[in-house]
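[step 3/7] inverse_fold.run input=structure_tokens len=308
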């Protein structure tokens, strides 16, 4: 029997890693000559509250690797939804990435960027070699969080859940559903008519974003508001439905149960439009090619990523 490990396709692995929705950060430091340096990263993770630790990973091939490895401090700037241009700047080989960015030195000493969702100024706790990357573990010396919603990243594209939600219509005729996905399954609940349904709520005066967060919280499942998957009108009932896909943890729900994301798994969904939507999702999940549906409960159009 062969003991060789199977070959891993780097591009396929990168795409698989991209299925995990993350925030977008710019990691910064000062070099030995006092010049600010930085790079875009979505590998930010909180590590510990006591002591306060976090980590990011940096490619060993990065031109600023040596400067970060020698630095005594670094900062993690969590970009806001309005800062996609900053993310792009710090991800490309730009001569002076800080030229068009307002920044200041944080209390610990690393560059802190203005307008971010949050920042953490850290002393270097430890450097850990990890394959073709180096893990930077920092001890938080100072931080600040703002009300600006954070910029997201999913399957190679930026996502702005708060901005998108704010542009959608709200009111008594808008209903939202959450597709809580975990390990190839999704959560269905009793629809009160002997069948099943996605967790669904009516949007009131509190607005869509608050209603979405409350709907997720009521399930008892840990998940973040995700991207829009379908927007359709039920003309006969004068209602508009908006469905959000949300990556979820496999917690035990307060009600309902996880079922396979397959035509058979969603067969008990009584609402025809919702059932067809979930059958489409099951097919797209197999192919890894997702789209957003716009139309009515009977007919519409699926817009694929990058399509205009």
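[step 3/7] decode complete -> sequence:
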């Amino acid at each position: 029997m062969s003991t060789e490990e199977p070959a891993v396709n780097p591009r396929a692995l990168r795409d698989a890693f991209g299925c995990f929705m993350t925030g977008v950060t710019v990691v910064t430091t000062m070099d030995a000559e006092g010049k600010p340096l930085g790079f875009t990263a979505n590998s930010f993770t909180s590590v510990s509250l006591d002591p306060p630790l976090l980590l990011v990973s940096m490619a060993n091939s990065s031109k600023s690797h040596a400067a970060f490895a020698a630095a005594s401090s670094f900062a993690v700037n969590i970009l806001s939804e309005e800062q996609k241009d900053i993310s792009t700047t710090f991800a490309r080989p730009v001569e002076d990435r800080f030229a068009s960015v307002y920044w200041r030195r944080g209390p610990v000493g690393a560059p802190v960027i203005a307008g971010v969702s949050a920042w953490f100024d850290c002393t270097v706790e430890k450097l850990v070699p990890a394959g073709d990357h180096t893990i930077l573990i920092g001890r938080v010396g100072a931080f600040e969080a703002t009300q600006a919603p954070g910029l997201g990243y999913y399957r190679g594209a930026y996502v702005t859940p708060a901005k998108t939600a704010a542009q959608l219509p709200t009111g008594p005729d808008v209903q939202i559903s959450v597709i809580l996905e975990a390990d190839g399954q999704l959560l269905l609940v009793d629809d009160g008519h002997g069948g099943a349904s996605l967790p669904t709520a009516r949007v009131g005066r509190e607005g869509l974003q608050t209603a979405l967060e409350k709907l997720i919280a009521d399930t008892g499942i840990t998940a973040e508001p995700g991207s829009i998957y379908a927007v359709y009108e039920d003309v006969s009932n004068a209602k508009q439905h908006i469905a959000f896909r949300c990556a979820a943890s496999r917690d035990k729900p307060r009600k309902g149960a996880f079922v396979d994301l397959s035509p058979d798994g969603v067969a008990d969904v009584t609402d025809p439009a919702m059932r067809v939507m979930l059958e489409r999702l099951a097919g797209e999940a197999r192919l890894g090619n997702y789209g957003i549906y716009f139309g009515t409960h009977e007919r519409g159009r699926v817009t694929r990523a990058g399509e205009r």
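[step 4/7] annotate
The domain at 10-154 is CATH 2.30.110.10 (Pnp Oxidase; Chain A).
Helices lie at 10-17, 65-70, 84-91, 161-167, 208-219, 272-287.
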